[in-house]
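Before a colleague's protein record goes any further, I have to sign it off. Alongside the sequence sits a line of tokens, each denoting a local backbone shape. I want your independent view on whether this chain really folds as the tokens say. Where you disagree with what is written, explain briefly why. This is what I was given:
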Amino acid sequence: MSTPPPDSTAVARAGDLALLVGLSHKHHIIRLTPGGQLQTHRGVIEHDQLIGRPWGSKVFSHIGRPFHLLEPSLANILLETRRRTQILYPKDIGFILVSMGIGPGKRVVEAGSGSGGLTTALAYAVGPQGHVFSYEIHPDNLELARQNLAALGLDERVTFKLRDIRAGFDERHVDALFLDLPNPADYLPQVRNTLKPGGFFGSILPTTNQLYQLLAALREHNFAFVEVCEIMLRYYRADPRRLRPVDRMVAHTGYLIFARPITDPPPDPPRKR
């Protein structure tokens, strides 16, 4: 069977983000710019030799080292985010998006912009019709997050606010609100004032001490349908000759907590016999 000709629209164009994967899966993410260069220890690659090539093509550096030209996934982009703080891992972010119903057209608030990892995923998910409002108390973090979103062309979907959220949020009746802070239990009154009735609340915490405090506060402030989980992801060596788990894995990164604000006090949990 002959190979079908490449789709003329499925080519790398100037301004696209591109993922170049070399030997041993070493990779680089670049924005294709006419006249630009990528300099690596495996040689120099001219952007002009990539622009117009079909995605999936093999290209070579000036010393003949091979790379594959691919479109980067959101996970690739998140893991390459410039950071001053620890970012959320894609394994957690993906579950946050689906658990909190975050998709095209949604209005979402987050507090704790950090380096903009979750902000990037939120902006990507809500699309051009939605919007993200990101609150951060540290000016340096906010500026880095803003730069990271601008580099991806997603900054128009995000409004950054330098604010201590003790003063509350400006928005009302948003679809979802996520707190990436060490003390989310202190801000539940502000959360309730901003979320629409029955909206989605989420947070992530590294220790059970913090988790215990948040669970007690959620009940006090009439949140129900509370869920707590952690996501563990284990990769395998994708080699049919030695298929087995890889030697290392990212296990516990944090406890994810989800809840919904309700108008009546939450019912007592069922007692075990």
